[in-house]
Amino acid sequence: MSSQTTATVRMFGTLQVLRKNRGLTSVAEVSIPSCGCAASVLARELDLPVENIEAVLVNQQAYCLDHCILPGDKVAFVPKGTFCPTRHLV
Known about the structure:
single chain; Ubiquitin-like (UB roll); 18% helix
């Protein structure tokens, strides 16, 4: 059983710029419930515009925003307009 309670989250492209303009870093350690949470919920908690997210990468695999993020995951939010071979997922 893992004692990990956070996920590492990275923001790219325009999402990174948005965070920088708010005085925030583009990488965050975020508390995640042991049962997990949807990537869309995590994006909203980080105050990211969900409508501008193309895909979420979780442990280097592309998923839709309804994918469940678990403690210990490495997450990256990719904005729309960024080349992403997973456009059909969203």
